[in-house]
Amino acid sequence: EETEHALADAKAAAARLREEGKEKEADEMAGMVVKLEEALHAHHDAEDLKHEAELAESAGETAAKEDEAAKAASEVARKLEKAGLGDEAEKVHEWQTLLEGGHESGADVEQAARDAHELAHKLRVDGKEKEAEEVEQLAAKLDGLAKAKLEVETMEKEKEAKQDMKEAADAGHHVADTLRAEGDDELADMVDKVGGGVEHALGGGMATEETEHALADAKAAAARLREEGKEKEADEMAGMVVKLEEALHAHHDAEDLKHE
């Protein structure tokens, strides 16, 4: 956040120096802006690598839990068949197939876990205590797997949201650079401010209010550019709006998965 503020201040100072005709000093400030942008990108890259490593580790642990649960389901189904409980064994085989497919969602496993708890209860009511205990242990494994898969899905959605935010910020800065090269410093400053708002929201963990504020600013900037006859730049800002909307949707999906 401090680097983002310093960057915004440096850009404003460079623009002011240029307005006052102090080209040499403005160029030096522009060099400072570049250094600050590089520092900010390096920080974001480091954070991304850290999250990539955490995601890879979690995905690996989840795959191991999935394999363990599938093997447990196979063994439970075999024991149920041996006990003459064909219908119950068939149900457990369905969970085994689901797990071995490798495409099930956290919600799918969560439902299988609920079904397993219900089956264990039914077996217990029917006096099949030994078999009920076997199914209950499987249900516990499914509970753990569902939690792990939902956590990985949440991390994947958060990664998607952050990538959309980064692309939106880059698009905003590209538009600003184009406008500044054309001598439209006022419009460039407006668009740069939007890009800075996106980076601020990204650095702050994508708080919904900040992201929605950045989205509103991007829409307003696109409309202003169109009013000024800057159709190409307005279209690029409209693309930035789409990226921010996608980021917001992915962020909401991640929040929903957390609550599950």
Top keywords for this entry?
260 residues, mainly alpha, single chain, elongated, 8 helices
What would your notes on this structure say?
With 260 residues, this protein is mainly α. 90% of the residues lie in helices and 0% in strands.
Mean pLDDT: 87
Query: Rg to the nearest angstrom?
Result: 27 Å
Distance between the termini: 31 Å
Oligomer: single chain
Shape: elongated
- Class per helix and strand makeup: mainly alpha
- Total strands: the figure is 0
In short:
The chain has 260 residues and is mainly α. The protein is built from eight helices and no strands.
Write the layout of secondary structure elements.
Blueprint: H1 2-19, H2 23-82, H3 86-101, H4 106-125, H5 129-181, H6 185-203, H7 208-227, H8 231-259
